[in-house]
Design brief:
With about 190 residues, this protein is an all-alpha fold. It has 10 helices and no strands. It is globular, with a radius of gyration of 21 Å.
């Protein structure tokens, strides 16, 4: 197994044309940072580990990997509380994590979902807006807010919420790689109008 893995690594290096450890290190760091921004924590962790294998003396990378590990654990813990329906406890924990990591939109989305489950719409929409403000291309937050707008339009019999939902779906559809299911969701909202 080991020789075949090493052969694949060598083949990838030959194909990419990057032979020096420095070039590979920089590429792994760049891709890891992008994965981290996209909230793909496991991929980011793997890329940082690959970078560390190129330059084992870069101690600052161990701290970055540790931060990613902490985020993965915290997210799993928070998601499990939300899934279990323990919304009050999840909100407390989300708020605690947000104090330490104010720039992670996932935490705002998670807390907003908890507020929404508890029928606290004002705080939910505030958190959805904060998540989107931190990352305008955060598809999950945009889709959740659009679904919220559709429910509000039906509950309050107010068509202006439909227009807001259509706007969110339009933003999603403008993002490269967005799922085509959002075309259908946007069409369904337009039909309601």
């Amino acid at each position: 197994v080991y020789p075949s893995k090493r052969a694949k690594v060598i083949q990838r290096i030959v194909i990419s044309g990057k032979y020096s450890r420095e070039e590979l290190f920089q590429e792994y760091i760049f891709n890891g940072d992008n994965a981290l921004k996209a909230s793909e924590y496991n991929i980011a962790r793997k890329l940082y580990l690959d970078a560390l294998s190129q330059k084992p003396n870069e101690i600052w990378l161990n701290e970055k990997i540790q931060q990613v590990d902490n985020t993965i654990r915290a997210k799993a813990n928070l998601d499990s509380k939300y899934t279990a329906g323990d919304y009050k406890e999840a909100i407390k924990d989300y708020s605690k994590v947000i104090r330490g990591e104010k720039d992670n939109p996932e935490y705002y989305l998670g807390r907003g979902k908890c507020y929404l489950a508890m029928d606290n719409n004002k705080k939910a929409i505030k958190d959805f807006n904060q998540a989107i403000e931190l990352d305008i291309n955060y598809i999950d937050a945009l889709a959740t807010r659009a679904e919220y707008y559709v429910k509000q339009a039906e509950t309050e019999n107010d068509d202006s919420y439909y227009y807001k939902a259509i706007e969110d779906y339009a933003i999603i559809l403008g993002i490269e790689g967005a799922d085509t299911k959002y075309n259908t969701a946007q069409a369904a909202v337009k039909l309601k109008l």
